[in-house]
Specification:
alpha+beta; seven-stranded antiparallel β-sheet; 32% strand; peptidase activity; hydrolase
Length: 721
């Protein structure tokens, strides 16, 4: 009792015939209700009570002749996401997403190979967390491999470092005419300046210089997602102030912001692509670098529409267009957390524009450039050719001016009152983001698919020489044409075709296959659409059902993985001939082919497994069980075996909960090192009535987070037997 040093109490029961009490221990006597009271000896006015309900125990079910049968097997080891050890990531930090059936309350710490990982914070995505330990690079990869092998983990990846995709240089250029006239932007402004329906554009970058006079009145309330206080320059981690405070900053974020939407026609400084755009500044980089975990949270927050981030106030200004002039040399298939954030932002309606990267390599090897659901932009120079540094490949959607470090550069806002030039695909991307803001201002209902389709249809293709590649298609559809895109939007073509793929990213084992739904959206025509696929693994032939040409609104594409591991970009092209006009559209699918699962090591033998059939007698108001003390014993060797349990009752109970356990370490306890599995449906432990067959149980390694039969019974107050 609080308020007194004398803690002695007297106990009493309002109905001792129902429930008696002895020194705090309550004994149920008969069915009924009673109140148990503890009263202070020192102060009789102080007491505490609890209501107790005593239930009649259910009768055991009668003997029966019911049968439950199935197989018990050992889960095969799945393929792991690969990691290029040369790609930069934060030592000791890992992003982990857990499977749905895992109890999230037990995940504040993880122990793998004797390494303890502390949970830093949940990411915005469901069941996804950032973990940290004091590890060097090699030990981080060791811990990662262990996490990827866990049966409760959906995926685990390093916390990759993403960088601003610009080439640093001295800001000496003040003439914007070359890069704006290259995309016919002055002609586009005659059609739309962005003022008709102002569009919110989020710039996820290194922050903004809010006091720059050319950004006055253009900025909305943003956020600082850069979580490392040590090198943020503002002395703290996340906060509502996205000001660029990085020591020695080159104002990369402010440069990108100015290209999207610096104040225009104001007799001051430079012009932005969209005169009316509202800029949502979001800081996720410092000194040109940031982590994937911070970027993923920033992306979800930018899109808003119900996408929340733990500990961060909801975004009241969801962005219609998001620019990410950042990235890193890691394939998107190895950064599933980033792809997941992109998918969720797409679902919220955001159009995402990203820089292709500045390494003069295939853009599919970079993230987010190689991810699905983004518009990937390469860079051109003043001559109209692919810039010397710009990434290339079939993943490129469009090209835009990015300049050359030793030539003409893109000019925009820098520090407060300052202007200067920069070169990079970082500078190309905001041209496209700003143009999409113009298009969406003209047509607020513009979707990502329609916007990309129009930009591709109106772009000016680069030939092989201009692209400096064997084929001009490695520069995407070509250099954007703002005037043509706005004109096309202003007077839409009588017919258009938009293709979509669901899902648009797959990971398959060699020799396997998968199905993708290809959506076909026609505008102002109904003729059949001829479909084809390119970019598939060598020796494979994808097929459509219904077959091409397709008259309906969808078809199923079956994609075989073939025998050669790697990442492939499949391009699904469609065309229809309508009154002499050819209407075209395309969509892309990222296919990752990996080696198939290996068989379990020889030590994983099914022999010695016990299968328990615990009878559920009652579920409410409390769960009542009749525990199985004579489990089925598996004597067969190998990795799977059939089982059959006879003599089960078919009346007087709700069913049986079935579990299987192999005591690998032979210590009589269901603990780490053993194999265990429940029979589940939909991820939940299921109750099965006889007679039932194909009740298959899969054994997986017991982890600290595994809900074993012993833990389950202990939670219910039963002895584990």
């Amino acid at each position: 009792m609080s308020g007194t040093s004398n803690t002695a109490v007297t106990w009493s029961s309002s109905n001792p015939a129902v429930a008696s009490v002895n020194n705090g221990v309550v004994q149920g006597e008969l069915a009924g209700a009673a109140t148990i009271t503890a009263r202070s000896v020192a102060d009789s006015s102080k007491s505490a009570s609890v209501e107790v309900t005593v239930l009649e125990p259910p009768s055991p079910p009668p003997p029966g002749n019911g049968v439950i049968s199935g197989t018990v097997s050992i889960a095969l080891q799945t393929s792991l996401q690969s990691v290029d050890p040369s790609v930069p990531f934060v030592d000791g930090e890992l992003i982990v997403k857990f499977k749905p059936q895992v109890s999230l309350q037990s995940l504040s710490r993880l122990s793998v190979f004797g390494i303890e990982l502390q949970q830093v914070r949940p990411l915005g995505m469901e069941r996804t967390y950032l973990y940290r330990a004091n590890l060097n690079r090699a030990d981080t990869l060791t811990a990662l491999q262990a996490l990827q092998s866990r049966s409760d983990v959906e995926y685990a990846q390093p916390n990759y470092i993403l960088s601003a995709q610009a080439i640093p240089n001295d800001p000496q250029y003040t003439n914007q005419s070359w890069h704006y006239e290259a995309i016919n932007l002055p002609g586009a402004w005659d059609i739309e300046t962005g003022a008709s329906n102002p569009v919110t554009v989020a710039v996820i970058d290194g922050g903004v210089v809010a006091g720059h006079p050319d950004l006055a009145g253009r900025l909305l309330q943003g956020y600082d997602f850069y979580s490392s206080a040590a090198d943020s320059g503002d002395g703290d981690g996340r906060d509502p102030n996205p000001e660029d405070t990085s020591p020695g900053t080159d104002y990369h974020g402010n440069h990108v912001t100015g290209t999207v939407g610096a104040a225009t026609n104001n007799n001051l400084g430079v012009a932005g692509v969209s005169w009316g755009a509202k800029i949502l500044p979001i800081r996720a980089l410092s000194g040109g670098n940031g982590t994937l975990a911070d970027v993923a949270d920033a992306l979800r927050w930018a899109a808003g529409a119900g996408l929340t981030v733990s500990g961060v106030t909801a975004n009241t200004n969801p962005a219609s267009v998001i620019n990410m002039s950042l990235g890193g040399p890691v394939a998107c298939t190895n950064a599933p957390a980033l792809q997941q954030a992109i998918n969720e932002a797409n679902d919220a309606g955001a159009i995402i524009v990203v820089a292709a990267g500045n390494s003069n390599v295939d853009a599919s090897t970079f993230s987010p450039a190689g991810c699905s659901g983004v518009i990937t932009v390469g860079a051109t120079n003043a001559a109209g050719n692919r810039a010397s540094y710009s990434n290339y490949g079939t993943r490129i959607d469009l090209m835009a001016p990015g300049g050359e470090p030793a030539g003409q550069q893109v000019v925009s806002t820098l520090g407060s009152g300052q202007y200067g030039g920069k070169a990079g695909t970082s500078m190309a991307a905001p041209h496209v983001a700003g143009l999409l803001a113009l298009m969406k201002s003209k047509k607020p209902a513009l979707t990502a698919a329609e916007g990309l389709s129009i930009l591709k249809e109106t772009a000016r293709p680069l030939n092989a020489a201009q692209c400096n590649r064997p084929n001009g298609s490695e520069c995407g559809a070509g250099l954007i044409d703002a005037q043509a895109a706005l004109a096309r939007l202003n007077t839409p073509p009588p017919r258009s075709l938009v293709l979509s793929a669901s899902p648009n990213a797959l990971t398959l084992n060699t020799g396997a296959s998968a199905s993708v739904t290809i959506g076909i959206s026609r505008a102002n025509f109904s003729e059949p659409v001829a479909l084809s696929v390119s970019g598939q693994p060598s020796g494979t032939t994808p097929s459509f059902n219904p077959a091409s040409p397709v008259t309906g609104s969808s078809t199923t594409l079956t994609i075989p993985a073939g025998s050669t591991p790697g990442t492939y970009t499949l391009v699904v092209s469609g065309s229809a001939s309508v009154s002499g006009q050819t209407v075209q559209g395309e969509t892309r699918i990222t296919l990752t082919v990996v080696q198939p699962p290996t068989t379990p090591p020889p030590t994983q033998n099914i022999q010695g497994t016990r299968i328990y059939f615990d009878a559920v007698l009652r579920e409410t108001p409390t769960l009542s069980l009749l525990l199985d003390v004579n489990p089925v014993f598996i004597a067969q060797t190998g990795t799977q075996a059939p089982y059959n349990r006879n003599g089960l009752s078919t009346e007087g109970l709700l069913g049986y909960r079935i579990s299987a356990w192999k005591d690998v370490n032979d210590n009589g306890t269901q603990d780490v090192g053993d194999l265990f599995g429940w029979y589940r449906t939909g991820g939940n432990i299921a109750t099965v009535m006889p007679n039932a067959s194909n009740i298959n149980v899969v054994l997986e390694p017991v982890l600290s987070t595994t809900l074993t039969r012993e833990k389950w019974l202990k939670q219910l107050g039963y002895p584990a037997r």
